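tool_call: predict_structure(chain=1)
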Amino acid sequence: MKTYAKKIVRGHVSASGRLSLPAEFRKAVGLEHGGDVVVELDNREIRIRTLDDTIAEAQALSQRLLAGKRNASVDDFLKERKADWKEP
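tool_result:
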């Protein structure tokens, strides 16, 4: 995941809940033409991350957790379930 220098700007949330993100911020994370994001509430802090970054983080975490474990892939899981379905 690419890191950037911290930058803070003042924003405004409209009465309808809309928030405009500065163009510089959108461009920095690849959202200059829009895209899907994940909005997370952690206590009183709101985080906005791209969907791609969130997926990449989850994949990296699962790889670390499953490193060296045999038969721990999704394909292995599905193969095991299919075998269970064939049993009487």
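agent: The helical segments are 23-28, 51-66, 74-86. Proceeding to next step.
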